[in-house]
Amino acid sequence: MKPQVHIQFASRACKPDNIPDLESFYQWAATVLDKSSEVGVRIVDNSESRQLNQYFRQLDRATNVLSFPFTTETPDQPNYLGDIVMAAPTIVLEAQQQDKPVLSHWAHLFIHALLHLQGYSHKTEASASVMEAQESKTMIALGFPDPWLSERYAIENR
Q1: Does pTM surpass 0.85?
Q2: What residue spans of 86-148 are helical by DSSP H?
Q3: In the 8-state DSSP scheme, what is residue 121?
């Protein structure tokens, strides 16, 4: 049994060639989730991302990923962790701007969101350090580069 990942594409504009295939999402989820876990993923355009970011975070801009933990256990969905919204155009643009492989950036942001659904946070320096270490460990286990390595190097060499 694998974690269940339900993926929804919000518009035709969100199905470009540079969105990972479904198997990739399932594989990534299996690295950080319990086998009985279940999550929903909605791939959106920047307009929907901006609307959601404005409504839930009072930030009037598109964002790469939002996580919505499900906080009430119900008998029909006892292991539902929550929902993730990923803005395809923003993720692709960020990867290009940061000179990262697009697939690697998708994986990192998805894992980041899955960790949020499990209670990880980056609100304090200590909690961010724990979360980033878990992200690095998971990305390396999946065969991707450490997503924080270049940022740590830049900070240490200022």
Answers
A1: yes
A2: 88-97, 102-117, 125-141
A3: -
Q: Where are the beta strands (DSSP E) in 36-153?
A: 38-44, 65-69, 80-87
> What would the pLDDT profile of 89-117 be if each residue is shown by its tens digit?
999 999 999 999 999 999 999 999 999 99
CA contacts within 13 A on the Cβ side of 9: 12
**Residue 42, SS3 per DSSP:** strand
Query: What CA dihedral angle connects 119, 30, 64 and 71, to 10 degrees?
Result: -30
> For residues 20 and 105, is the Cβ–Cβ distance under 8 A?
no
Do 114 and 39 contact (CB within 8 A), yes or no?
Answer: yes
CA dihedral 134, 135, 141, 147 (to 10 degrees): -140
pLDDT in tens, 46-61: 999 999 999 999 999 9
Phi, psi (degrees; rounded to nearest 5) at 86: -125, 125
Which residue's structure tokens are 């319990």? Answer: 34
Q: d(Cα 131, Cα 20) in Å, to the nearest integer?
A: 23
CB atoms within 10 A of CB 62: 20
Phi/psi for 134 (5° steps) reads -65, -40
Give the closest residue to 120 by CA, choosing from 136, 144, 99: 136
